[in-house]
Amino acid sequence: MAKRLLTGVFIVFVLIVMGSSMFLLDFELFSESNTKTMKTECDSNGDNRIKLIVAGGNPKAASSFRLVATTCTNSEEEEEELFVANVQELNKEDLDFSWKSLDTLLVTYNKNLKVIKQLPKTTTTKPVITFIYTAVAE
Questions:
Q1: pTM of the prediction?
Q2: Taking the mean position of all CA atoms in its chain, how far away is CA 66?
Q3: For residues 97 and 83, what is the distance between their CA atoms, to the nearest angstrom?
Q4: Are 33 and 20 in contact (CB under 8 A)?
């Protein structure tokens, strides 16, 4: 009788461990966040490129917007991170950019974004790009 009881408890324990591990794996707590390039524009000369990248996040990592600069001719070149903002819910209208001139970029973002990084100008591109940031209400 004791052997049957011990076997039954062991089987229930194994089923509970397997069920809870399958339940926890379903949440993907440690998975990589998915990134997507939302907008890419080169300046009028075709020298510099600005990319708007959205990282979707996961339960442990917040979603974020990133603006990066690189050259238009070589996409393998290292990207310079210019603007980073975290957000609870991703909305395409929360961040946008447009070229004002060859070396000036207008960045418009929702004032409710939690801005992590905001550079006034690039350091790796030629010519140097100057940024005009405008925070707007929803």
A1: 0.68
A2: 6
A3: 11
A4: no
